[in-house]
Amino acid sequence: MRVAVQSGAFDLGVEVSAFSAAVPGAGAVVSFTGLVRDEGGRLSAMEIEHYPGMTETAIAGMVAEAVRRWSLVDALVIHRHGRLAPGEAIMMVATAASHRGDAFAAAEFLMDYLKSRAPFWKKEIGADGAEWVAAKDSDEDALKRW
Amino acid sequence: MRVAVQSGAFDLGVEVSAFSAAVPGAGAVVSFTGLVRDEGGRLSAMEIEHYPGMTETAIAGMVAEAVRRWSLVDALVIHRHGRLAPGEAIMMVATAASHRGDAFAAAEFLMDYLKSRAPFWKKEIGADGAEWVAAKDSDEDALKRW
Amino acid sequence: MIDVLYFAWVRERIGLPRERLETRATTVAGLVEELRAREERYAAAFADLSALRVALDQELSSFDAPLAGVREVAFFPPMTGG
Amino acid sequence: MIDVLYFAWVRERIGLPRERLETRATTVAGLVEELRAREERYAAAFADLSALRVALDQELSSFDAPLAGVREVAFFPPMTGG
Hints:
The complex is a heterotetramer, with two copies of chain A (146 residues) and two copies of chain C (82 residues).
Chain A: E1 2-6, H1 12-21, E2 28-35, E3 43-50, H2 54-69, E4 72-80, E5 82-84, E6 89-97, H3 100-117, E7 120-126, E8 129-132, H4 137-142
Parallel strand pairs in A: 1-4
Antiparallel strand pairs in A: 2-6, 3-5, 3-7, 4-6, 7-8
Chain C: E1 2-6, H1 8-14, E2 18-21, H2 28-38, H3 40-45, E3 53-56, E4 59-61, E5 72-76
Parallel strand pairs in C: 1-5
Antiparallel strand pairs in C: 1-2, 3-4, 3-5
């Protein structure tokens, strides 16, 4: 299980490849990657603020909870902070399990919790100013299924 | 949208990387990879038979159905046939969408259909002989949720 | 004339991957009856139709489907892809 | 003495990321009352508590939680990670 909170870019291909090569016995690997959308060209950058210390603890807690709920061989979370350009990868989650149901459920669970319970705040920088991204009710609702 | 049915190996990292780099505007990329399990060392190889012609058509139909049901920017399916060693990647699915819900749902839908509706048959080659993998009721049941 | 294909353990039991047949059957079930009557290995392969699937011209179909116009019939066990 | 941290627009509204305070409050809500009373920028930041979240010693908590033993309080809007 690895959790990384970093300002630097990560190489999605390298990470997914290394992750899936190091899960002996696993039959299913799921990855999720969040990219900065360009919002039809309106977005010039995204700034991600976080709460150093709490971020790592909160994510480690989510991973531990996922391990309790599903039969996982391994899990990985990488989340960036700082200034990102459209198209850049913001974060990724990877899960490995014997069977696809566990891998998918754990990845979705981690994503739902990262969205609303990990202390990150996104600010969209556009031509017409900067704006904090508002939390969506649908993201809060997504937690209720777990 | 790309569908590849091939005997040769594919590089998961390269594929995921190229896929996610070519989906402008997408905010969410999900990948699933199926690996040959070693079943605690009991499995020496997996042989995958398929129905040339029908396989490609069937998978293309599933991808088209996924595009009808969810808002996808792109989708990719690669599925191997022939003889594979434990740890090797059997297949992968990748989906890209604006939002994570669509990307996850479409990837799970494609996996459920590939499991039970794409004409592949797996044979496990072990120390104590070879055996065709039996279809699971749970895989057939998984189709009912869509 | 119709092409008949066999996959996985159906192919192994019958002992060949495909053959070209003359048939008088009008449905898949009729064709299965003809095949069963040919030889023991066919009877063995088609002993339990609930364990088999059929595709007509590369599309999944059912045993009561008509054969009119069909050029390729394939018999195989439930698929195990993914 | 207690460390109080602000993130995102709470930080921007108050104009600083963290400060060290003396407080007599026994709950988070009490601390918020003290802050509101300090200056207009605090009153603006804490105008609508339903738009805010609080963490005590880096764990999500609630506005009615006691402050006893807490060393670090953080106020911020709902999180938008992922």
